[in-house]
Design a protein that fits this description.
The complex is a heterodimer of chains A (about 220) and B (about 240).
Chain A: H1 2-45, H2 49-63, H3 67-77, H4 87-112, H5 116-124, H6 129-159, H7 171-182, H8 185-215
Helix pairs in contact in A: 1-2, 1-4, 1-7, 1-8, 2-4, 3-4, 4-6, 5-6, 6-8, 7-8
Chain B: E1 2-11, E2 14-24, E3 29-33, H1 40-47, E4 55-60, E5 63-64, H2 72-78, E6 79-82, H3 94-105, H4 110-123, H5 139-152, E7 157-161, H6 169-184, E8 188-192, H7 196-202, E9 205-210, E10 213-218, H8 220-225, H9 230-240
Parallel strand pairs in B: 3-8, 3-9, 6-7, 7-8
Antiparallel strand pairs in B: 1-2, 1-4, 4-5, 9-10
Helix pairs in contact in B: 3-4, 3-5, 4-5, 5-6
Classes of the chains: A mainly alpha (about 220), B alpha/beta (about 240).
The structure holds adenosine-5'-triphosphate and magnesium ion.
Chain lengths: ~220, ~240
């Protein structure tokens, strides 16, 4: 037992490097997916048919393709058309785009949950569509979308392990590397699992708080 | 100041407004009465472009009301609306609700708008509720905030769509007395209402709508006390003596 512990201590520094990369991938792709998701949701909300079509088509396509395949596409196919990305960049962009479809659905649900009377009241004091979006719809939609957003963060943290398949040296990949050179699968993957769990715990707590706070608001 | 000329509107194959014309002069209070489904809300909503219409013309101070045109925003600043279900912004306090239009639509400074909004809230009797959220106000209080919000746009006219119908009976009086006060100060008002007492007392003119047309119109005295049309008579008999 103490032997396993001392081996674990040996692996820890390398795994910690992976932890930072995991956090970086998660945070950055969360940002990308939020901004993009909001964009798709607003595009779908406009009265312009063409915009609605673009938004709907994008979401349908993205949701229909496995995230791993999307990552492969960005990392391995894009160079063929002259777009060279580092594995890290491809990972962040790929995860960001993949998750933007789910974020968009979440924001769309939030926007649609807003009473029609709210928009009419805003119109009746002369607000432009732009102002209505910014001052009336989005602030209320955010409250509705926040609890599911907390869950999305947890899913993204876990799914960030997918970028290991395109050689990004995050936690899962570091674990694989150590395990394949030491054959100490038990210690390595127990540690990896625990480290994900520790990262997920504060997010789970946050998600619960958000749910409690905004559920009956 | 408001001219309505031969408006027609259909939802799909059903024509719900079938040729309505009337005028509202500055400072006039016009009440629209009529049975449910007669088109009262629809015609009112046409006046500030919340509803499109297929035929006819509406003008506010000579300017055409076209819901599809950019000009509609300017028109809406001049013609405010008070809704049956208040439609206050739930994420903003009472005073923020009232400030919203002056600050974000008219570009007034926050300090100036706050002072003005406080004045209007005081006028509707809510100086002690300025920092409350709509969710913590009674229906009657919410509707008075909504009236303050409409007033704060300093409009030339205010449209009311059954402003007391969603209220508990004991809260109706407060809202009506605020409306009476606004009318006395010379505001042009078009009020869809089932409150015959209010109409009789405050309205300069009453329109009786049924089936998407104006069946009868005239002074409150004429239409409410001495209706000529059989349909107006039977409607009034029903609303004034609901138990018989
Ligand atoms: N969005 C809509 N789609 C289809 N029909 C509608 C719509 N809105 C209203 N109508 C119909 O138009 C007619 C007039 O409706 P309107 O709301 O103007 O009546 P109202 O006189 O205000 O009635 P109430 O006293 O019940 O408020 C009704 O027959 C109604 O069913
Ligand atoms: Mg109505």
């Amino acid at each position: 037992m103490s032997e396993a512990l001392s081996r674990a201590a040996d692996y820890l520094p390398v795994l910690m490097e992976g932890v930072w990369v995991t956090i970086a991938v998660t945070v950055l792709s969360l940002l990308v997916s939020t901004v993009l998701g909001l964009f798709w949701a607003i595009l779908g909300w406009t009265k312009v048919r063409a915009f609605q079509m673009i938004s709907r088509t994008f979401i349908t396509v993205i949701r229909g393709i496995p995230i791993i395949v999307q990552l492969f596409y960005i990392y391995f196919v894009m160079p063929d058309i002259g777009i060279n990305l580092t594995a890290f960049q491809a990972g962040v962009i790929g995860m960001g785009i993949a998750y933007s479809a789910y974020q968009a659905e979440n924001f769309r649900a939030g926007i649609e949950a807003i009473d029609r009377g709210q928009i009419e009241a805003a119109q009746s004091i002369g607000m432009s569509d732009n102002l209505i979006m910014r001052r009336v719809i989005l602030p209320q939609a955010f409250r509705i979308a926040l609890p599911p957003y907390g869950n999305t963060m947890i899913m993204m943290l876990k799914d960030s392990s997918l970028v290991s398949t395109i050689t990004v040296a995050e936690l899962t990949r570091q674990g694989q590397l150590i395990a394949s050179s030491t054959f100490d699968n038990m210690t390595v993957f127990t540690l990896v699992a625990l480290m994900y769990l520790v990262m997920a715990l504060p997010l789970t707590y946050l998600a619960r708080q958000l749910e409690k706070r905004y559920k009956n608001a | 100041m408001i001219e309505v000329r031969d408006i027609h509107k259909s939802y799909g194959p059903v024509e719900v407004i079938r040729g309505i014309s009337f005028d509202v002069e500055p400072g006039e209070v016009v009440c629209i009465i009529g049975p449910s489904g007669s088109g009262k809300s629809t015609i009112l909503r046409c006046l500030n472009g919340l509803e499109t219409y297929q035929k006819g013309e509406i003008r506010i101070d000579g300017q055409r009301v076209d819901p599809e045109d950019k000009s509609i925003k300017a028109i809406r600043q001049r013609v405010s609306m008070v809704f049956q279900r208040f439609n206050l912004f739930p994420h903003r306090t009472a005073i923020e609700n009232v400030m919203e239009g002056p600050v974000y639509v008219k570009g007034m400074s926050r300090a100036e708008a706050r002072e003005m909004a406080a004045g209007y809230l005081k006028k509707v009797g809510l100086e002690d509720k300025m920092e409350s959220y709509p969710g913590n106000l009674s229906g009657g209080q919410q509707q008075r905030v909504a009236i303050a919000r409409a007033l704060a746009m300093q409009p030339e006219a205010i449209l009311f769509d059954e402003p007391t119908s969603a209220l508990d009976p004991e809260l109706v009086g407060d809202v009506l007395s605020v409306m009476r006060q606004v009318a006395e100060e010379g505001m042009t008002m078009v009020v869809v209402t089932h409150e015959m007492g209010f109409a009789r007392e405050v309205a300069d003119r009453v329109l009786f709508l049924e089936g998407g047309v104006i069946v009868e119109q005239g002074s409150a005295e004429e239409v409410l006390r001495n209706p000529q049309e059989p349909r107006t008579q039977s409607f009034l008999k029903r609303v004034l003596n609901p138990l018989i």
